[in-house]
């Protein structure tokens, strides 16, 4: 659906002598129906990249392919037509304060001289969709932040786009309103089949509605993948830092580490040994009694130290940190058995 190929955006440095890269050789592929997250710290190049999709930013180098067509090669008229397929919503809503809710939503239709009755036929169902029918005649100043963003969403949808770009659309909203807005975007993605590209600096937003994500840092993509994989196994330091609290919940508190180290060094009877393990469960494996089966099959004992379960994209995932005791042979068989049930098994040797 959207192919960003080798996108580079250069600017002159403030002294005018050097070159600064807001994006450098970025390649991103977005599939139809994706809710695609672009995440990174401030200044990472997220807005620059997303604004290349509708050529609000014309990249210094690279191709922007939307639905098989290269936007960078189009004439101005072709580009204007193509941009109608790409709606956009913004952190600060960008509504016209002198126009009512209805007139804000109608604006893109007015700009292409749509007759009044056709405009009404389009605008009223959109107001219904975003839950603003009874506010149609109000002005933006009479609305809450969440309602203003709903106007922004309805306006973006008025030209029947195939793609919706969202630049930090929930950053100015409180947590409850953020939830409601994300749910609305999810509904639009599902019911209208819209592909959504979302910039955010909050992993929580990605976790709640995106199916794929790229992580950017200093103008380059440092990680890309299905959201569940990136959360389960973040590779880059930037991603790990951004996941912050979610990963902290997987780590043993310092005082416990000292106790566990001591415990692991204790002698066990009958050639049994202790192992500090982390199991990561996804989907069905979160509900199957994999661990208790392994322990009864292979005569192991276990002691749970830390556990966490979460939900991403309607799929559960969780981690358990535990000490397992058994003979080396039984332990190895149990690990193979657990892994064969789709659970990732790691021995946390770095703690010892
Ligand atoms: N027109 C411009 N001229 C010079 N530098 C620019 C221009 N636009 C953006 N930049 C710089 O490019 C870098 C990337 O900016 P961009 O807005 O894409 O980052 P971002 O990840 O969206 O950040 P934020 O989350 O703060 O919006 C920043 O260092 C910014 O200052």
Q: How many structural domains can be distinguished in the coordinates?
A: 2
Q: Low-confidence parts, pLDDT < 50 over ≥5 residues?
A: none
The CATH topology of the largest domain is Rossmann fold
Strand order of the largest sheet: 6-7-8-3-9-10
Mean pLDDT, rounded to whole units? Answer: 91
Cα gyration radius (Å): 25 Å
Number of DSSP E strands:
14
What is the CATH superfamily of the largest domain? P-loop containing nucleotide triphosphate hydrolases
Mass-distribution shape: elongated
Our estimate of the beta-strand percent is: 25-35%
How many helices? The count is 12
CATH architecture descriptor of the largest domain: 3-Layer(aba) Sandwich
- In CATH, what is the class of the largest domain? Alpha Beta
Instruction: Name the helix and strand elements from N-terminus to C-terminus, one letter apiece.
Output: EEEHEEHEHHHEHEHEEHHHEHEEHE
Terminal residue distance: 48 Å
Share of helical residues = 25-40%
Keywords:
Alpha-Beta Plaits; Rossmann fold; 2 domains; elongated; 4-stranded antiparallel β-sheet; 12 helices; single chain; 14 strands; binds adenosine-5'-triphosphate
Structure characterization notes:
The protein has 352 residues and is an alpha/beta fold. The protein folds into 2 domains: 2-247, P-loop containing nucleotide triphosphate hydrolases (Rossmann fold), CATH 3.40.50; 254-351, Alpha-Beta Plaits. It has helices at 46-53, 76-83, 101-110, 116-129, 145-157, 175-192, 203-209, 227-232, 237-248, 254-264, 290-297, 328-340; strands at 2-12, 19-30, 35-40, 61-66, 69-70, 86-90, 163-167, 195-200, 212-217, 220-226, 273-282, 301-312, 315-326, 344-347. The strands form 3 sheets. The protein has a 6-stranded mixed beta sheet, sandwiched between helices. A 4-stranded antiparallel beta sheet has the order 2-1-4-5. It binds adenosine-5'-triphosphate (ATP). The site of adenosine-5'-triphosphate (ATP) has 11 residues, from helix 1.
